[in-house]
Amino acid sequence: MNQEIKTLYPGLLKYIRGTDKLFWLLLIVFAGIPLLYFSYIPIWDGWQFSRCYMRSALEGSVDCERHSAFLHTLIYSILQRIDLGNFQLIYAMNLLFGIAGLISFRSLLRCLFGSRLSPANLTLLTFCFGLNPVFLVHVIQPCLDFTLPILLVMVLLSLFKNRFYYAAAAGVLIVFTKESGFMLYGVSVFLFIPLMILNNPSLLKEKIKFVRKVGVLIIPIMLFAIYMVLVPHTQIGGSWTEGIMKMLRFYLLDKVMLAQLISLFVINFNWLITAIVLINVLIISADYLKSLKYKDIIGTSFNSKYEGSYFYLLFIMIIYFLTRLPFVNNPRYMLPALPILIVLFGGSLLNVLRKQSIITIALIMMLVLLTVSSFRTVDPLSKKAMGTFKFGSHELLHMASYDTPVHGYGRDHLVYNFEFTQFHYITEKIINKVGWARVFIIAPGATWLPDFGAFDIKEGKRAIIGDRLRSLLFYYSDQITSNEIAPEEFYYISYPNYDRNNINAKERDKLAKTYDLTNIITVENDGYSIDVYRYVKKNN
Cβ(119)–Cβ(20) under 8 Å? Predict the structure, then answer.
């Protein structure tokens, strides 16, 4: 068993001995950036997924918003059984998963590229995934999607190391993390089987051994099929048949699909990665045409030309299936494709830049841009592609610009770097400034109402459970205009993403028919600010 682990993770013992100092240094950066935000309390979808873990610890339920996530929910509920309501324990679990994923990814890259990339460049390439803002920020914004690329990397590493029991174990975890995990595992294995045969045709002569290998790999698929029979309802459709048909349907382009592609290929300087991969595709195409004429053998950056084809096909199929449900442009939905894009990026660097020293410079520059992008929206192409809105003295991407208004004007759309946390910090400041025993009004759909609905009055912090918890009175503005509620006084929180199409101004105009505006309070934090409007009922 020990020998198998050494074979599966050949670099792990090296890391433990501390010989790869660059890896450890960047791992500290990976952990250190989210640690700066451990005081953050989740909002939007992060609040909903946190409730799943806490409800599981409290009631034993493993249901999470009708997703096929019972293993994921069970794992994340374990630490909540120790300290219920502690969000930092969720973040710590995410960090542990992230570290395991990066060690696995480093080992996978070494397996794929070997000495063709220097150890330093393998490490730098690893953290083009680890320090990518959309991946990194979800350490503190709980969701199912964060672990999907990690588990996919573990599946791929096990496949390429011919450790099929490990691949099946990771496969069980990924299919019972989210419905898309079934697709990720199925596609990875479906494409890997012909790759095995192409790399080693003698496998077909050992039919029993080959069937055993394939049999192990289909265990997660069989378990998921049983799950579909036992649990007929799913989050992606009224039935599994409806959900599967959605995943298989074909259409060229949808506005939300376009936004999803921009989230993967463009934002946070990802367009630089995309550009290198596209240049490499052009080079490969030219080499192929040349080989047809001169009968040359095409070189490859991978161990074999079949491996390169595997990852390109895998990437295309993952992109295709992930964009079959154009529901809403939450950047996390495209996370499973990110490590595959980085693998293609690594192969492309070898073919486009060639020299190790130039590759090192390019990777360092990429990591600097990615790290800066975690804290501030600075990419001009991202701003051009998505549009922006003012948040105090800063600009954030209008990630909901391609969505229909029914999905809001930016909730988890905005979780593309750590700037979205200011919605939490400033809301908390507002509550402390005007007092928790007030009526708070927001534009319809600005958030899930429960996530801002509880407050620890002693600590002055948002919370989800505790003896000192008090319920806050948060309502949508249309609940006043429809006469559902009629408070004597309220505070309208003008979240800046709802300035799009003058939504805030229009809602305040409606409120002004029955309420007088008395004063405006501006609450600021690190240059980000939100205006709060105090209204009182008209005397008539």
Answer: yes
